[in-house]
Amino acid sequence: MTPSEQHKAGDLLFLKRLNRSAILDMVRRTPGMTRADIAIKARLTKATVGTGVQTLLEGGWVIEGELQKSGGGRPGRALLLNDQYHALIGAEVGVHGLRLVACSLTGGIIHQEHLHLIPGSPEATAAILAEQLRDLLHHPEVASRHCLGLGVALPGPISPSQPILRLAPNLGWHDVPFLDLLHQHLPELEGLWLMDNEAKSAAFGELYFRTGTVPSSLAYVSAGTGIGSGVVENSQSPLVTRGAQGLAGEIGHTVLQPGGLYCHCGNRGCAETLVSGWSIRAALGIAEEDDLHAAVRRRLHEADVGVTLRRAGEALGTMLLNLHHTLNPSEIVLGGSLTQLGAPLLDPAMDYFEANQHRLLGTQQRVQLRIVEDSTYIAARGAAAQVLAQAIHQAGDVPATE
Ligand SMILES: [Zn+2]
Prior knowledge:
The protein has about 400 residues and is α/β, with parallel strands linked by helices. It is built from 12 helices and 14 strands. Strand 10 (about 215-225) and strand 11 (about 225-235) form a beta hairpin. Helix 1 crosses helix 3, helix 7 crosses helix 12 and helix 10 runs parallel beside helix 11. The protein starts with a helix and ends in a 9-residue tail after the last helix. Zinc ion binds near residues 263, 265 and 270.
């Protein structure tokens, strides 16, 4: 082959891969499309779609379903993501434990593990997580699948330019190349490796694994030991808002009370000093080792517990309103362990948000706000979603055979 022929062949391969990614993404967004539907929507020839679908079928990415009638033409088979062949691995390092999931392509959890522990050094935590991941990979339902890679969610801002955890204020970690530490213990885990902030991963998963009506943007607020948020814009390839230093969404460190109490970050009066797992523990004298939810429930009859939760709830409502007015996401999802504190915390938050969210425009239009009661695996599952997104949109990993 001459150099120009080689170039042409390279272009063709690239085009084929691009077409396959586009077809796969359409089936992901709208399960049940036929080859003819895809050809019209993607403006590809039927032959191109046919070849692309065939490769995706052989690669275990899609399956054929029922025969569907199509407008005027011959009926075609519905195409759906193949839930049985691949596995996406997601993990979250939290301030109180490690959470691991193996997901299918549609976000179904194949297997999950939750290990309660207070992480020590990054090195020790990476070694423990690697052991847990190895067990997960050997689980029969996971081991029988082809692993696409691993996403790790971490409790702090990640550098936008390199895989480094800049800071985990509630673990005391600074500038940690966590994936490198983990990889030393787990070289056998093949595929894509990525890491992100836990609220950003959760936001991504909440949007990416949804089919049908998908919000144009979604914010996930993670209210746990600390408070963070992640915002995802739905586009061809959904995009997480990061900011120049990865700080976008760090709403726990927006100041609600100038000159107030000192925060773990060193500033005064951050939202976290009013509403966070750590500030509620400090206000009520609940030790780090004790279960916050159980300790609060035992003492709900005490007046100061009610007052602390109401004030924390009002601060949460203020923070949600500030988020609404700063980024105006079309949907807000509230999760994290604090949601388990229930009405004494959440009612004042929702009341404040509901009473004030429409004031600026004076319309009755409401932002959808959803509370997730059990968000144990939401960030780990979101990190798994990020692996799939990278496989489809960036890595060109959509199957190898030509
Ligand atoms: Zn702070």
